[in-house]
Structures are given as structure tokens and as C-alpha cells.
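User: Assemble these into one structure.

Assistant: Restating your components, then the assembled model:
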Amino acid sequence: MKIARNVAMMLVCVILGIMLSLQYKSVNYNQSIASFENKRLDELKDELITLQNQKNSLQERLQELEQENQTYAKVKAGDSEAAQQIQNNLKKARIFAGLETVKGKGIIINLDNNGLILVQEYDILDMVNELRASGAQAISVNDERIVAMTEIRAAGQYIVINGKQMNAPFVIKAIADPDDLERSLSLMGGVLERLKEDMLNVSMKKADEVVINKFIDDGTTIKTNLLTPVE
Amino acid sequence: MNLVYNGFGVFMKKHGSQYILLIVFIIFGVVLAVQTKSTLNTKKLAAAKTYSADALKAQLVEEQAETDALKKAIDENVAAKNEIIKEYVLQQNDDQLAKDWEKVMLSADLVDVKGPGITIKLDDAPARQPDTPLSWQIIHDQDIRIILNDLKKAGVQAISINGERVAPMSEQVCAGPTILINGNRHPVPYIIEAIGDPDTLYNSIVNSSRIAEMTEFNIRVEITKSKELKLSKFSGADKLDKYISGLEVVEK
């Protein structure tokens, strides 16, 4: 009788122990699910906000385009003002492609050999890239306009840009906000510091008016014979 | 002897083990109550969360549909615009203007183009090699610039990197683990598509000293020639004013 009761007690205690551990686990699990759901909810909200922002900017763009097209539609009716706008568009594309001589506020950089230390093609390449990254809208090196497919090549003691041989000193002109350009070029560890560390002679000055020549198309740098426009 | 009420209207004699049982059942009761509460709570919470998560998802789908519709409308409008411009150019009966228009749009990277060329796929070294500095095993912005310059030396006519068309003022700048191109971030792998004479471009890249250095440190480089590549226009083509705002034309 006593043994039977003890056994029963033991069983009850074992079951209780198991239940306790299960309970502990279950409550923990429930809590972790709750926090996971919270996180998921936050992610969804973020996604929604990004999408809404994107939608708003698209809406603005669409309105602009519709307005533009309304003006353009008048071209068919013989409106010369609208035709003028198309010519303007062509002009803008020409400016962007570097086919027009332009002027504006900017910066002029002088880069020269220092005795036996010569300016390398990479020095000019990095400088041009840094100017582009700092928001330059037009760049020229020794009056050769830098366009999309402009190569910078070392050929013996020369540097060849747009197929034209040139020698140091290099005068690099760029049009953009001069303060922005100055700040990003003279950044610690920036391109100016690196060129100075390489012992090259480099100087920079801001200018209220920089004139940058148009790209002179001799048919070597800008070739389009293999390009087919896709509608 | 203690008398204990057994719950059924009868007083029983109480043994020592019955105290234990009493405690066991009290704990059992508490466990049961906590468990029930926790489960109910979770169910209630989950129901509320599911409701708002579902609502959010529905809203997301809706917004996505509206965004897609807007994109489509923009594409249609751009097409309509190009159509009008083309018509105008044709109307002028001016061959020079028509030729000029196409050449300008092509060289300014403002239209989608197709043509023969090569594709270069670059990816960081697959596994870290303990005896080589880590920075030699990953791709840097300067690598991309030098490869682009090599392509330009070989007479490339149009380039895009990860779908980002290289336009006159396109930069390639390191931005943490990504590279910034046309103001957009791009992580590895880099897929450079270049339209030009496939053989010339291929040879220029195979013989490029920078590519040789990169493969030396196990950076993965794959070059393939293609009969036809399709490159999208410059990503800022619709907002050109932003890129020429500081330029004033000088007439000569």
C-alpha cells in the first residue's frame, strides 16, 4: 500500500516536472514569436514608406512629361514656339554629350611633372573621375573635352587624350560649384593629397568663368557605326 | 492526527505525503493558469498582428500596382515624346538634322542601343587566402576605371556596368562595400557590357595588365564575346537639366 502510494507520488512529480519544462518552453516560444512578428511588421512598414516615396517622385515626373507633351502636340499644329522647344531639347543633348563649347563657374587645376617624376595616365584618370564624382558638368584636359568614350593613354613620354598627343603641364578645367569641387578634391587622403605625396606639382584655383571647348569630332573617339538605337 | 477537508464534504485523515500532493497540485494549478494565459495572449496578439500585417501587405500590393502603372504611363509618355520629335525632324525634311539627332542621342548615351561586343564579369576572390592581403582579393573602383579606360583605348562605342550606362560625366567611386556609378550603388559582381568590335575589345581586355594582376590574386574574371548586346540609356536621361544646369553655351 505504502509502496504503491510512493510510486504514484513519484509519477505525479515526474509528470509535473515535464509539464513545468514544457510550459517554460512554450511561454518562451510564444514570446519569441511575438517579437518576430513585430520585426516583420516594421519591415513591412519600411517597405511601404519607400514605395510611397518612389511613387510620389514618379507622379511628379509623369506630370512634367504630360505637360511637355501637351506643348509638343502643338508642333503638329505648326506652333513655332513648340518647335523651338524641340530644338532646345536637341541643344540640351548636345551640351550633355560635350558637343557645345560651354562656360560657367568652376576650377582650374595645374598638374606638372616634377623633374624625373612624370604625370602618369592613372593620375589624370583618377583626377577626372574625382571631378565627375564631385558633380562636374564639363571637364577638359589641355582643352580636349572629356566625353563618355574619351580614353586616357600613356604613349611613351606623351599622354594621348581623344587621340591627341599632349605633354605636361596639364591644365584640367572643370565646371561645377567651385566650393564643392575644392572641398572634395582637397579632402584628407583625397586626390590632391595623393598627387602631392607622389611629389607631382599640382595647384588648384577657383574661377568665376571657365570656358571649356567643345569636343572636336574627328571621327575617332565618338564612333557610333556599331550602335543601333532600340525603340 | 490532522483532519483535512477533501473537497467532497468529507474530512479525511491527513498523511505527510498528502501535503506534498497539495503542494504539487497548487503548482500544477499555477502552471495551468499561466500556460492558458500565455497561449490565449499569443493567439490574441497574433490575430491582431496578422490583421495589421495582412492589411500592410494588401496596401503594399496596391502601392506596387500604382507604381507599376505610373512607370508604364511614364514610358508611354516618353515614347510619345520621342515620336513627336522624330516626326518633327522628318517634317523638316532636313537630312542633316535627322542625322545629327541620331548621332547626338547616341553619343550622349540618351537612347537604348544594341550592337556586337563583349561582356566582362568580375567577382571577388572565392575564398580568402591567408597569405595574400585581403584588399588584393577584392575589386576596387580603380580596377573598374582602368578596365573602362582600356576598353575606351580599344575604341569601344558604348558601355554599361550592371545596367548603368556610362555617360560623359559618369563616375566610378568606392562607397564602402559598393561602387557608386551615376549616383547609384552597385555591389559585386560587376558585369561590364561593351559594344564595339568584339575581337579588338576581347584582345584589349585579355592583354590588359590590370586584368592580369586581378586574376593573379584569384579575382574571378570571365570575358565573353556576343553578337548582340542591349544597353539601356543613361539613367538620368529623363532629367537632363540637372546635369547641365551650370553650363552656358558659348557661341563662336
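The mean pLDDT of chain B is 83.
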